[in-house]
C-alpha cells in the first residue's frame, strides 16, 4: 500500500492550487479525480476564457453562514498574488467590467499553468480514479480506490459543489463530511437564471435575446445593476445571476428598467414637450419596442400622452422603475455557476481549512459553504482556500 503525506480528492481549481502549494513545501502529494481530465470546470468557465479573478476582492462579495470566515484566507492570498502567478507563466489577459480578469486566449492556459506548477512541485495526479471508501486510522486516513489502497497523513476534500452535473459534479464531498460528523448546510443552485411561470412564458417568450441595463433588488434589499437578458425560458444576464444568490422561492424581485432615472419625471417631461406623441413611441425611445409592447396594454400604448390621467402616468412610472415579478424558479444545477450552502464553515479553521474535530481532514473551494459573486470571486476563493490548506497540510 502506497503512503503519501497528503492526498487531495478533486483535481479542480482549489485542489490543484492546494497541491502545488503543499508540494513546494516538500510534501509528498497525490491528487485523485474520477474525471479523465483535470480542471474541467475551469475549461468551460467565462465562455472558455476563464474569469480567473477580480482586481478588487472584498469579504462582503461572498455569501457564507459565518461572514467572517473568508477574511483570513482572502487576506493572505490576494488576487494580486494570483495575477502575479499568471504573469509569471506569460499568460496574456484583459480586464472587463467591474474588474473582471479573463484570459486573452483560452481557459486552457490556466489549467496548463496549474498542472505545470504541480509538476514543478513534484505532485502526482491520478485521474479516472474512484474513491470507494475513506476511513480514519491512527496516523491519518486509509483510502480504498478503484486503483488499490492508499494511505495519507492529511486528506483534503476539493470535490466542488453540485453545479454543472454534466461535468461530473457529485455530492461526494458532502457525504464524506457527514461521514466524519460535520454539518452540511442545505444546498441550492447559485448564480443561475430564473424560469417563467406558464402565463409569463406565453407573454414574454418572444422577447428572447433582448438585453437591457437594469437594477434588480431582492426582498432582503440586496441589489445589482448590470445587464438583464430575456431568454425563452426566463430571465438571465449578470444582474439576474447575481440576485439569484439572494433569492428564495416564492419571493418577488423588483426590476428597475430605467436605472438611475426617474420614470415619472421622464414621462412628465415628454408630456410637456410632445403632448400628442403616443405612449408607444415615447417608451420606445427608452426601451426596445418589443419589450414595451409585452409590458403594457395595447390600448394604453395607443393613447397620446395628453390622454393619460395622472394616476395612469404614476402607474406607468412604477412599472418602469419598480417592476415587481415573482419568477417560477431557477434553472437549477444544470446551468448554475456555483452551489450555495455546503460544509458548515463553523466547523472548520478559517486559517487552515482543517476540520476542528477531525485532525488532518481539510476542505477547500466550493464544497464548503462559501459562494462568491459573479466576476472571478469564486475562483479567487478556490485559490485562497487552496493556498491556506496547502500551507498547513
Automatic annotation (TrEMBL):
Domain of life where this protein originates: Bacteria
Residue intervals of the RsdA/BaiN/AoA(So)-like insert domain: 189-338
Protein name: NAD(P)/FAD-dependent oxidoreductase
Matching PANTHER family: OS12G0638800 PROTEIN
Upper taxonomic lineage: Bacteria, Pseudomonadati, Pseudomonadota, Gammaproteobacteria, Alteromonadales
Coiled coil location: none
Keyword Iron tagged: no
InterPro entries documented for this protein: BaiN-like, BaiN-like_dom_sf, FAD/NAD-bd_sf, RsdA/BaiN/AoA(So)-like_dom, RsdA/BaiN/AoA(So)_Rossmann
Flavoprotein among keywords: yes
One Pfam family cited in the UniProt record for this chain: HI0933_like
Gene3D superfamilies: FAD/NAD(P)-binding domain, HI0933 insert domain-like, Translation factors
Cofactor entry: FAD
Domain RsdA/BaiN/AoA(So)-like Rossmann fold-like: from-to ranges: 4-390
Keywords, comma-separated and alphabetical: FAD, Flavoprotein
Amino acid at each position: 500500500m502506497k503512503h503519501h503525506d497528503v492526498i487531495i480528492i478533486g483535481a479542480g481549481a482549489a485542489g490543484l492550487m492546494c497541491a502545488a502549494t503543499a508540494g513546494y513545501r516538500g510534501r509528498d502529494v497525490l491528487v485523485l479525480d474520477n474525471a479523465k481530465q483535470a480542471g474541467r470546470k475551469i475549461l468551460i468557465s467565462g465562455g472558455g476564457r476563464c474569469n480567473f479573478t477580480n482586481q478588487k476582492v472584498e469579504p462582503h462579495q461572498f455569501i457564507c453562514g459565518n461572514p467572517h470566515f473568508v477574511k483570513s484566507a482572502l487576506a493572505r492570498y490576494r488576487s494580486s498574488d494570483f495575477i502575479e502567478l499568471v504573469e509569471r507563466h506569460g499568460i496574456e489577459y484583459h480586464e472587463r467590467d467591474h474588474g473582471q480578469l479573463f484570459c486573452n486566449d483560452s481557459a486552457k492556459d490556466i489549467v496548463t499553468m496549474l498542472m505545470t506548477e504541480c509538476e514543478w512541485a513534484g505532485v502526482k495526479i491520478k485521474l479516472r480514479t474512484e474513491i470507494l471508501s475513506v476511513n480514519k486510522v491512527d496516523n491519518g486516513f486509509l483510502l480504498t480506490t478503484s486503483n488499490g489502497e492508499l494511505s495519507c497523513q492529511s486528506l483534503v476534500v476539493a470535490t466542488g459543489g453540485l453545479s454543472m452535473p454534466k461535468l461530473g459534479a457529485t455530492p461526494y464531498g458532502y457525504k464524506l463530511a457527514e461521514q466524519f460528523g460535520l454539518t452540511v448546510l442545505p444546498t441550492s443552485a447559485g448564480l443561475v437564471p430564473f424560469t417563467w411561470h406558464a402565463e409569463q412564458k406565453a407573454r414574454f417568450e418572444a422577447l428572447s435575446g433582448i438585453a437591457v441595463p437594469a437594477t434588480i433588488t431582492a426582498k432582503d434589499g440586496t441589489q445589482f445593476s448590470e445587464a438583464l437578458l430575456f431568454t425563452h425560458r426566463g430571465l438571465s444576464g449578470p444582474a439576474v445571476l447575481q440576485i439569484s444568490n439572494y433569492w428564495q422561492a416564492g419571493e418577488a424581485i423588483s426590476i428597475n428598467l430605467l436605472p438611475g432615472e426617474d420614470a415619472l419625471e421622464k414621462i412628465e417631461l415628454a408630456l410637456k414637450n410632445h403632448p400628442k406623441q403616443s405612449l408607444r413611441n415615447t417608451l420606445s425611445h427608452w426601451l426596445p419596442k418589443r419589450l414595451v409592447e409585452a409590458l403594457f396594454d395595447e390600448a394604453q400604448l395607443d393613447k397620446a400622452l395628453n390622454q393619460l390621467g395622472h394616476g395612469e402616468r404614476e402607474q406607468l412610472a412604477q412599472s418602469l422603475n419598480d417592476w415587481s415579478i415573482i419568477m417560477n424558479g431557477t434553472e437549477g444545477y444544470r446551468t448554475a455557476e456555483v452551489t450555495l450552502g455546503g460544509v458548515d464553515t463553523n466547523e472548520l479553521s478559517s486559517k487552515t481549512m482543517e476540520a476542528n474535530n477531525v485532525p488532518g481532514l481539510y476542505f477547500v473551494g466550493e464544497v464548503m459553504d462559501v459562494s462568491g459573486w459573479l466576476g472571478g470571486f469564486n475562483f479567487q476563493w478556490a485559490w485562497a482556500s487552496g493556498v491556506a490548506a496547502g500551507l498547513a497540510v
